[in-house]
Fold this protein.
Amino acid sequence: KCSLIRTDADELTYPIHILIRYELEKEIFAQKIDLDHLDKVWDERYEKYLGVRSQKPSQGILQDVHLSDASFGYFPTYALGSAIGAQLFHQMEQDLDVDELLSRGRFRVISEYLKKNVQKYGALYNYDQILKMATGESFDPHYYIDYLKKKYTDLYDL
């Protein structure tokens, strides 16, 4: 369900929290937003995109500790990580019977797969190079969209 709190949000609306934050950061640095009214703009975006509005700043803009401590620029990586994960998961499903492994508690096989295909490279390559090596493709957001559509269509019988 939609939530004012990003960490309480469902997987479908979580990236929208990140989008709102990213838009605000861009506007802050472009000096297109009055910082004295940032809380109001925050609330307007939440109402526009998620249909929820905070009743007080502690439910809205102040719940984002990253913003109040001026941690700018990295927040979109949270959403990118989910999208990249969906593409890696798609490939893993092509290479392994993931459902069978999970149902039998064979997590080590999955862990070893990820070590072999992703984690062993560490920071040696950038994410897109690792993604190409692991999946044969550059980043493609359609895997994430397909993942979300399938999950929520199945979950809610849509």
